[in-house]
Backbone:
């Protein structure tokens, strides 16, 4: 008896709300309804963005020579084939090594240079500071091709020191990569510097620390997450870079993974080993970015739990 | 004391500034010097380092060639059309995605954010490589098309302008979505609620509140993708590989890497920079206007 009474208000509410199968009109005008169109667009986009990449990675395990038709699973292009797999073919191992060498050197040079520049630009007042800031922004708003062309002209047309010391090849590639990664380091470190503020350093100075002491014992540890994060982002930028690295290259031994991909992506003769090479590139980048994000969010203790919004911020600064 | 302190920080900036002067400012001037220079009997460029020796012949040739009817006009037209079309596509796809993740995703927001960031960091060349596999004559796209009854699926990878536009959109859209998401995520919900309380329909609240407030981030996202698109030559090389779809970047790349006529390439770089400056001026004007409106 009581069950029947309890049920009646429910059915009445359902009738007001439009019943079990609401019409299109009421569905559209209901602001608390699920935005079906947006849900569908978002998931379709994500599928569109990620499935081709996953398929390309999957094809590195293809048993046949094709990069577009699946012929069964094998690891021959990774290590099974004694001649053509990426760890045996000297073309691939050389490209892999050159990519890693450039990324490591870029990281080691651009990070300290960028950290110093960020500190200087953030606090240097007076003549020249404005122009220096502008100069730092130029690489961020120039298409990479323009930068590559101008560096190529400098290294091939100018015959005086220091430009004559830089020859196309590994040295020029390093110079080019440091030039475009420098500004990213500056942007990341500076935004962290702004969020730290000057208070901690001033407190240290008030308590008797020298300027160097305050810098070394207070500011540097506070900046560490940003420094490490920018270091890993430089690694990712370097290993992914194509245009500047290609323009600055000189000969076979300076071919990197992206350059090899560019030269062979359309060739019918290339095997799924190319996909394996690309997979290594992606895995290395994503590990670098993942580590940057974890270091940044854990060390800077912005959030107790990992918050992907920090990941977005970190990516946007880059 | 404070003044001495401020001067110390200058020494921190010095090595970086020195690096940028050497490898950003001098190279930019070198482009100008080569474009305004002359050519020796082997048609090797002889840069004119002093403005007194400048020869504007090649530069004016490049600029007049970039106008309708000129030698480089097809490339300039292709650049404008492809970049414009793929930017519109990026907006049509990217805005709803960013809007959904910022406003309605609820519990799935964190997962979706990670999924949006991944393509941002997956190598551009791998993403192109993936499509070359899918679009090749025996690839999955054409298999799908034949299976639904299209007997002669198109040739996607040889001079197909639609493939180039789609590839540009696919390549650059991650860089558009993230800033737009960040902008939408920052919008104060109480403003939208106020509009709803005052009688706006959801659509009108979106049109009069959310959309104008997200305009700066849409502009920023567009600038972020338009700049590299204008200098892009590799997408075209990989997806089309036909001179029919050449963009300005392809012309520059051709002259710089595959011939002695580097002065033509340098002049075309100046054309590219001139086009970008017009775009940049528009962007600065719009952001200044937005800053005044929302201040």
Residues:
């Amino acid at each position: 008896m009581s069950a029947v009474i309890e049920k009646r208000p429910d059915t009445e509410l359902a009738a007001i709300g439009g019943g079990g199968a609401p019409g299109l009109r009421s569905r559209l005008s209901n602001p608390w309804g699920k935005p079906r169109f947006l849900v569908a667009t978002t998931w379709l986009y994500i599928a569109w963005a990620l499935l081709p990449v996953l398929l390309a990675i999957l094809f590195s395990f293809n048993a046949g020579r094709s990069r577009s038709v699946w012929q069964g699973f094998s690891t021959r292009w990774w290590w099974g084939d004694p001649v053509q797999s990426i760890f045996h073919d000297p073309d691939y191992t050389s490209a892999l090594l050159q990519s890693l060498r450039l990324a490591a050197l870029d990281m080691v040079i651009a990070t300290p240079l960028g950290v110093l520049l960020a500190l200087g630009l953030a606090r240097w007042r007076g003549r020249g500071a404005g122009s220096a800031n502008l100069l730092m922004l130029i690489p961020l708003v120039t298409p990479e091709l323009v930068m590559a062309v101008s560096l190529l002209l400098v290294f091939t047309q100018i015959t005086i020191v220091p430009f004559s010391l830089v020859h196309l090849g590994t040295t020029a590639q390093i110079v080019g990569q440091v030039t475009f990664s420098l500004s990213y380091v500056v942007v990341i470190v500076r935004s962290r510097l702004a969020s730290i503020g000057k208070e901690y350093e001033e407190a240290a100075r008030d308590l008797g620390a020298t300027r160097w002491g305050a810098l070394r014992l207070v500011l540097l540890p506070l900046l560490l997450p940003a420094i490490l994060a920018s270091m890993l982002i430089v690694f990712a930028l370097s290993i992914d870079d194509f245009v500047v690295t290609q323009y600055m290259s000189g000969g076979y031994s300076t071919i990197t993974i992206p350059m090899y991909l560019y030269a062979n992506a359309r060739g019918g003769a290339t095997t799924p080993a190319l996909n394996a090479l690309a997979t290594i590139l992606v895995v290395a980048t994503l590990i670098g970015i993942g580590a940057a994000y974890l270091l940044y969010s854990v060390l800077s203790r912005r959030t107790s739990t990992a918050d992907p919004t920090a990941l977005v911020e970190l990516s946007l600064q880059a | 004391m404070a003044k001495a302190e401020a001067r110390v920080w200058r020494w921190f900036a010095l090595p970086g500034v020195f690096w940028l002067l050497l490898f950003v400012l001098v190279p930019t001037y070198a482009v100008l010097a080569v474009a305004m220079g002359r050519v020796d009997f082997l048609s090797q460029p002889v840069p004119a380092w002093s403005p007194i020796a400048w020869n504007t012949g090649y530069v004016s040739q490049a600029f007049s060639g970039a106008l309708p009817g000129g030698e480089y006009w097809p490339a300039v037209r292709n650049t404008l059309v492809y970049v414009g079309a793929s930017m519109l596509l990026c907006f049509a796809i990217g805005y709803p995605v960013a809007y959904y993740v910022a406003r309605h995703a609820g519990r799935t927001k964190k997962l979706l954010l990670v999924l949006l960031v991944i393509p941002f960091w997956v190598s551009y060349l791998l993403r192109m490589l993936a499509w070359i596999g899918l679009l090749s004559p025996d690839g999955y796209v054409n298999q799908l098309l034949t299976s639904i009854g299209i007997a002669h699926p198109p040739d996607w990878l040889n001079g197909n302008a639609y493939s180039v536009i789609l590839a540009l959109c696919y390549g650059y859209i991650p860089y558009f979505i993230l800033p737009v998401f960040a902008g939408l995520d920052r919008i104060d919900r109480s403003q939208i609620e106020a509009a709803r309380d005052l009688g706006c329909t959801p659509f009108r609240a979106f049109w009069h509140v959310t959309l104008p407030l997200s305009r700066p981030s849409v502009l920023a996202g567009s600038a972020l993708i338009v700049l590299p698109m204008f200098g892009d030559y590799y997408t075209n090389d990989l997806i089309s590989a036909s001179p029919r779809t050449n963009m300005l970047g392809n012309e520059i790349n051709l002259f710089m890497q595959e011939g002695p006529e580097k002065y033509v390439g340098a002049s075309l770089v100046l054309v590219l920079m001139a086009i970008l400056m017009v775009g940049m001026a528009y962007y600065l004007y719009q952001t200044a206007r937005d800053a005044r409106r929302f201040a």
Confidence is low (pLDDT under 50) at residues 1-21 of chain A. DSSP finds 14 helices and no strands in chain A. Chain A touches chain B through 92 residues (CB under 8 Å).
